[in-house]
Amino acid sequence: MFKSLKSRLFIWYIGSLLLMTIFIILIVHVFELENGAFFLTLLFLTLAVFGFTIIYKITKSLTYLSSKMKMISSKNLDERIKDIQSEDEIEELAYSFNELLDRLHNAFKREQQFIADVAHELKTPLATLRSTIEVALQQKRENIDYQKALQESLSETHRLSSTLKNVLDLAWSETPQEQKNAKSFNLTELMADLLETAQKMAVQKKIGVSGSFVKDVTVYGFKDKLGRAILNIIDNAIKYTSQKGKIEMVMKKTDTMAAVTIKDTGRGISQKDTVHIFDRFYRGSSSEKVFGSGLGLAIAKAIILSHRGEIKVKSKIGQGTIFTIILPLT
Ligand SMILES: Nc1ncnc2c1ncn2[C@@H]1O[C@H](COP(=O)(O)OP(=O)(O)O)[C@@H](O)[C@H]1O
Ligand SMILES: [Mg+2]
Question: Can you tell me where the transmembrane regions are (predicted)?
C-alpha cells in the first residue's frame, strides 16, 4: 500500500511528529518519569534510523540509476536498466528512461538506414555515369557515339541531382523550423499556380487537369515548401496515370481547416503498397519503369506534418487514387 516514496516519507514524517508528541506528553506530564530524557533520546534515535534507512534506499537506487545512465551512449543504445524492482517512483523513473532509450534507439536506427539508403541511391547513377565515360574513352569513336555517351551521362547527372535535392528537402522538412520565417500566405493563389504547372506537365501525356478552389484561403507556414509537397503529389498523379486520363484538384474549407484533394484516374495503389508509400525510398511494386526515387511522398508528408496538417490516401487498383491534405487555417 505504501510503496511510493512520497507516502513512505510522509508517513515517516507525520509518524515521527506524532510519536514524539505522545512520548513527551506521557513521559513529562502523565508518568513524570525521571529518566525521561533517556527514553526521548532512544525514541529520537529509532526514528532517525528509520529515516536514514528510507533515505539510504532512495539514494542507493538513484546512484545505481545514474551510474547505469552514464554508461549508455550511442554505441550501446540497446541496453536497458533492468534490475530496479523497488515498485516506487525510482522504478518508474527507470521505466521512463528505458522508454526514452527505445525512442532514441529507433530514431537512431532510422537515421542509419536513411544514410545507407541515400548512399545506395547515389551509388547506382554514379556507377553508371562512370562506366559510360570509361567505355566512351576506351577507344577512338564516332561523334555520334560521343553524343550518345554524353546524353546518357547527362541523364544520370539529372538523376543524381534530383535525388540530392530530394534528400536535402527531406532533411529540411524533418528539422524543427525557425517559426520566425513562417508567414501567412494565400493557399488559393498557390493552388492556382500549381494548377497551371500541372497542366503544363500533363500536356505530353494528354491528361486533362481541372481545378476548383474556394477563394481567399490563408494558411500559415512556408509557401514554397508546401508548394513542393503538393507538387510531389501532382507529379505522381501524372506519372501513374496513363495517356488521356484525368486529374482533378479541389480545395474546400471549413471554419478551421482547408482540405486539398488531388484525384487521378490512374493505375491505383495496391493495399500492400498503401501502408508503405510514405516511407523514404519506398517505390510501389509496379513503379520500376517510371522515373523516381521513392522520396516524393516522404517529403510531402514531412512538410505537411511540419505545417500541423495531415495527409491521407484512398485508392482502388485500376480506377485511380485520391490524396487528401488537411491544413489548419491561419
Ligand atoms: N497517384 C498515384 N497513383 C498510383 N501510385 C502512386 C501514386 N502516388 C504514389 N504512388 C505509389 O507510391 C510510391 C511512392 O511515391 P513517391 O514517394 O512519390 O515515389 P516515386 O514517385 O519516386 O516512386 C510510388 O512508387 C507509386 O508506387
Ligand atoms: Mg513521386
Answer: 9-31, 37-59
pLDDT in tens, 40-63: 888 889 989 988 998 898 888 889
Q: Are 82 and 111 in contact (CB under 8 A)?
A: no
Q: For residue 176, what is the DSSP state? A: P
CA distance 306 to 264: 26
Task: Evaluate: CB of 245 within 6 angstroms of ligand 1.
Answer: no
Q: Which amino acid is at 134?
A: E
- pTM value > 0.90: no
Residue 221 gets the label, from left (phi > 0), alpha (psi -120 to 50) or beta, of: left
The region that residue 214 occupies, defined by phi over 0 for left and psi between -120 and 50 for alpha, beta otherwise, is beta
Cell of 185: 500566405
CB contact at 8 A, 93 and 81:
no
The C-alpha atoms of residue 153 and residue 305 are separated, in whole angstroms, by 36
Q: What is the pLDDT of residues 66-122, one digit of tens each?
A: 998 999 888 888 889 888 877 788 889 999 999 999 999 999 998 888 899 889 889
The C-alpha cell at 311 is: 495527409
Q: Which ligand sits nearest to residue 281's alpha carbon?
A: 1
Q: Which atom of ligand 1 is nearest to the CA of 241?
A: 3
Cell for 244? 488521356
Q: Does the CB atom of residue 219 touch ligand 1 within 6 A?
A: no
Using a 6 Å cutoff on CB, does residue 170 contact ligand 1?
no
Please give the helix or strand (H or E) that residue 244 lies within, else none: none
